[in-house]
Design goal:
Order of helices and strands: HHEEEEHEHEEHEEHH
Number of helices: 7
Radius of gyration: 18 Å
Structural class: alpha+beta
Oligomer: single chain
Helix content: 25-40%
Length: 240
């Protein structure tokens, strides 16, 4: 039985002929980007940020957004499973149905200059999302995310309401927590989006650990200290 698009139509024939040209990317660029997306998705599982198929990853190539398909284990994905949509959500590549969280991914691309998005259900970050409205400034790496990490109010997964709540929490930020749900982070590359996701999970783990000791409260940084760190981080790493 042919796979169905999100709008219910059969895409086996139409998607085959659409190709990457419709989104302004060459087949070679699309193939390379898909390989990177699959590798990143598998990394989220290997590093314990995702259980089963609970997270999703996307990358923008031209005006095409490649996304993980819904309900397919990442270790089963092959080059033949490429899934791509345009910025309106219309499927232009592949036969598998895109992730149910497509509205969140598209909202990020429409509102920012992001080229990659990673969404996870990381355990420590999800735990913090149930306790706070904003992650305290427990570590200077909050500077890489734009400042204090906000928690987007809860809404059902896969809905436009969740996408709108997320955008509010993401304003001026590269990542946010989703209440009783998980994390979302974006970046200029898949590696950057993934690294920000991992850093957010680590900071949540640090805060939970430091806050767990009876009678003690963790020392927090000021927003000025985090801004200073953010400026220093711009020059971090190798040049050239």
């Amino acid at each position: 039985m042919a796979e169905r698009r999100r709008d219910g139509r059969d895409v086996r024939d139409s998607a085959q002929g659409a190709g990457a040209e419709e989104g302004g990317a060459t087949p070679g660029e699309t193939e390379l980007a898909w390989a990177g997306l699959v590798a990143t998705a598998r990394r989220t599982v290997a590093d314990g940020l995702v259980v089963g198929t609970s997270g999703n990853v996307s990358v923008r190539v031209g005006d095409t957004v490649l996304v993980t398909p819904t309900g397919v284990p990442y270790d089963r994905l092959t080059p033949d499973d490429t899934v791509g949509v345009d910025l309106t959500g219309r499927q232009i590549l592949g036969t598998l149905t895109p992730t149910s969280e497509l509205p969140m991914h598209l909202a990020v691309y429409r509102a920012t200059d992001a080229r990659a998005v990673v969404h996870t259900h990381a355990v420590h970050a999800t735990a913090v999302s149930t306790l706070l409205r904003e992650l305290p400034l427990i570590h200077y790496m909050a500077g890489d995310l734009g400042g204090p990490v906000r928690v987007a109010p809860y809404a059902a997964y896969g809905t436009e309401e969740l996408a709108e709540n997320m955008l509010g929490a993401l304003a001026g930020r590269a990542a946010c927590l989703l209440q009783n749900h998980g994390t979302i982070a974006h970046g200029a590359t898949l590696d950057q989006a993934y690294d920000r996701t991992a850093q957010l999970e680590w900071m949540c783990r640090v805060w939970l650990t430091a806050s767990s000791l009876p009678g003690l409260s963790p020392t927090l940084l000021s927003e000025d200290q985090v801004r200073e760190a953010a400026e220093r981080l711009k020059g971090y790493g190798q040049r050239g």
